Amino acid sequence: MRLLVILNAAFLCAFAGTMALMILLNQQKFADILRGLDDSRVSVMTLDTSRRLRQAVDLGLPLKDIAESRSIVEALIEDYPELESVSIFDAGGRVLEHGGNELDTGRNEAPPIWVSDNRAADGEVWRIEDPESFIVGAPVVNNFGKLEGGVAVRYSKARYSSIVAGLLNELLEAAAIIFVASGLLAVLGTAAALWKLTKTARYLQRSVENLLKPDPDDAPADTDLVEFVGYSASVRETAATLAAAEGRER
Amino acid sequence: MIRSRRQAPTLSGLGLRIGFVAVAALVVANALLAWIALGAVEKRLEPVIQDKAHVLAGSISNDLYKAVRLDIPLGSLKGVDAFLENLLIDHPEVAYLAVTNPEGKVLFSAKAGNGADGRPLPFAAKASEAEAGTFVSFGSEYNITLPLVQDGNRVGHTMIGIDRAYVRNTMGGIFTDIGISLCVAVLIVLELTLLVLSLTVARSIGLMRRLMHAVSEGDFSASITTRGRDDLGRVIDAMNGINAEINRRFRAVASGGSAAALESLREGRVFAEGGAYRPVQVLRAGDVQYPLFFFIFGVELSRPFFPLFVRDLYDPSLGIDASIAIAMPMSVWVIAMLLTTPFAPALIRRLGTRNTLLMGMAPTSIGLIATASSTGFIELIGWRCLTAAGFGLVTAAILVRLAMTAPERRRALNIGVFVTATGGGSICATAIGGILAERLGYENTFLVGAAIVFVAMSIAFGFLSPDEGVGARVGTPTRRRSFGIYGSVRFMVFMALSALPSRTVLTGFMFFLVPLYLDSIGFGGAAIGRTMMVYFLVLLVMNQAAALMADRFQNHGMLILAGGVSAAAGCLLFVSTVDSLLLVCGVALIGLGQSLVMTPQVAVLPAYFRTETEAYGTGSVTAAFRVVERAGSIVGPLLAGAVVAAAGLARAGELIGYGILATTVLLAVILATGVISRRH
Q1: Does the domain spanning B31-164 belong to CATH 3.40.50.970?
Q2: What CATH code would you report for B485-680?
Q3: CA quadruple B561, B562, B563, B564: dihedral sign
Q4: How many CB pairs under 8 A join A and B?
Q5: Domain segments of chain B: what residues?
Q6: Which of B114, B551, B631, B659 is deepest in the core (most CB within 10 A)?
Q7: CB–CB contact B3 A200 (8 Å)
Q8: Which residues of A touch B173 (CB under 8 A)?
């Protein structure tokens, strides 16, 4: 029984460790893919918005005077409720249009890091994250290559985290059931494998215990035990010698 | 066991059966979990992919509307194919992008992968029937269609096909990692099975046999200390009970009996006359195999990323070149190890094997934890010294213990226990270490390593008796090591052309350069671990084969030369490619080279250096070989670091490869002339 417990405790530790690693690998890979897809989707929106603004800027309009800005921001916020905010700001960081939740810096100023990353982006998408959100931005550059401003789309980490947590919970639940089932399988299999050993050990125990009994139990014959033959002979012979000595004492 | 041997379950048979059950349960459980995980991932990613496809289709439609608004017929637009192809590059989940006319005829399209196959898009014909913006599963894709409308009339459609196998294919990237983790888990389960069986069944059977043998010889003064109440423990209790009863009756007779009666009782028998029993002990080589396996597993977990970890902590203000600085902790490791190794025999004699092992494992564990929290280069060197000091003590103590428990004729078998445990531990550690480093970060992987070393400590604590080895005459050879051997030009030439290069390949190329090179070509931690694991795998498999070949063909020189060529070819192949398979082949060739060289290098010493062996003794010649080998281990990383600093990673690898080839050719010439081997 003890052997069965020790063996299976070791197995269950190994099972748990492997399953934990399996869950970790799956969860992290899933999180990477999800993050990539979300990022790519918001990048498409951001670049699309940036391109639409650029067309107006290319016609000679300053970014702050583009009438379409308001409707672009409102349409994005309305169509994609998971977006926290959409901001259009000029090259100096002044917010020209904003929809959604307020920024930490207020409605008028874009965070300095947006402005610096937007300046360094060289026409490409830029990405940053804060504790609560992911931010994807794209600069708006006119056809003379002058930076007019930028677009920044903020979306919550909460949705991403809840999807990842959902997967983790599902995997943990599945793992718990599989762990119990495989543990049971291991216990039964080990018990079956140990059955013969246990039987032999009990048989041997009875044979040893019978050696000095005046009325031995009905134990199986012990002559087929290789090491036991010499052992039992020596015990019986010594016991007989002792009995003789004890008899003489009396 | 004790029953007639044909009928009784043998330990290996029992281990095999139990191991099979456990491994089957483990594999089935994890395969099931992987399958469930894949389904769960697909279920969650599908809507995300669809949302993205929707946004992308909208974006393409927006661009096309510019033309539509200007009344430019869609079909006469230029550059749309190229525009769509550009979009495909950024969106790997998209199988195709297309623009059709109102009737569904494809005007422009771009297809991923075999896009140039010219096959039509079967869904295009249904584009006009499909509901705008909804996903339709058709063929191997999910299709979405957005109509392009001008003044209430449909002028065309934007279509996107999402590859249905995308999630499955992307998740497939982790299946290699899962497979490797599973293989490592299987190895661990088998080790655990043998560990527990050895701890409980084999040990108990060994003790019972000893006691039965003693009693058969008339010795009733022994007793076995049982640790638990399992079935075998009860047999031992019964046997102890027999001895106790015999001794009780003997003492009763002795207290009032005549001298003659006592004399006849004592004839050919030994009793515990003072009431104290002699403990029965069984020293088994396998007892240290399991703590060693887990110890190596824990320590070697950092093998695939250690140079990268050091690179992150490199401080340019120290004025050392980055490559040499990265190599320094590896060289310092060998030095610190060498400093504690000689203390092992004396510590075992004084404190016993178990306490010596614990004394070595504790600083190793602390060192790994401290390494994880290192913030500076010098601090890192300090903590690596502590870790290495413990490592040196543990490995030396285990070698001493193995030598202690083995009769001369079984010594090789006992050393096999060491090789198996270190090899198995290294394989598992290198594979898993890379995966953990990629997923958890370097620091956390060191902490996992420390925890595994703690497991090794627990096993050593539970497995070995505290007093085992105390006072034993172990491993303190008379150190009449003569330094004269270093004056032998023949010996030193052989060392310089064989032992030094092989250690340089190991520590300088394999442990130092390989992770840095793989990192430089964009391999992640898991991929580095997988690639490096092949080295240990080949070494473990080929070590025995090389020893057998060496014995069979009795041509050690040829094996050494073949090993040198293989290692050189491996180095040259490795740095000449970025292909994963060829990189693995390079590492495998290095492993093969090392395994071909390792055994024959020691075996040839008495034959090649007969005069030196006669003059200084076999021990001195072997010891000198080990000293040179260790010097190679110290110099290897520093040498490789210096070459990398001067020539860059790939060129340094080539130079090392050519260097090994040159020394091998030179050795071949010298061996052919018989200068070393004295074969005339």
Answers
A1: no
A2: 1.20.1250.20
A3: positive
A4: 267
A5: 31-164, 173-279, 485-680
A6: B659
A7: yes
A8: 29
